[in-house]
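Example protein
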Amino acid sequence: MRETAGGLKQIHSDRPDCFYCSKNEKLDSLMIEAAALQVSTLYVNRDQTHGGRCIVAYRRHATELFQLDRTELRLFMEDVSLAAEAIYGAFRPDKMNYGIYGDLVPHLHVHLVPKYKGTEEWGEAFVNAPPSRKTLDPDGYRKIVEIIRSQLKR
């Protein structure tokens, strides 16, 4: 535990009941690891309804940005920015959407969702769990991972 600026004690350790921490089969069913970043991991979401959709998950267990100290927060946001730039370079969307939720999956992670003008969701928040999902064959996911890795500028 550590004390935050507001004096609240926060738990900041790995949790075996969290699929991001345990890297279990639930995680594998939802996403594919693409790259280790400074303090987080970049994953390609298996649901590719939004082509290039990825998630940046903080490597240790935390649920809120304010639980990170200043250095961790800076490094995490650098990771998010680096990943977004790589996705942008790979897919050339009109806009990147960033989503931080966590009510159902309480682990600090950011959804990076490329958006394109003229599509159904343009101008709206992306639908996290669309009624029909686009999945790819293993080669399709491999290609996405490769193109995003090729765009990572470290």
Observations:
- Confidence is low (pLDDT under 50) at residues 1-11.
- The CA atoms of residues 4 and 123 lie 36 Å apart.
- The longest strand covers residues 109-115.
- The two ends are 31 Å apart (CA to CA).
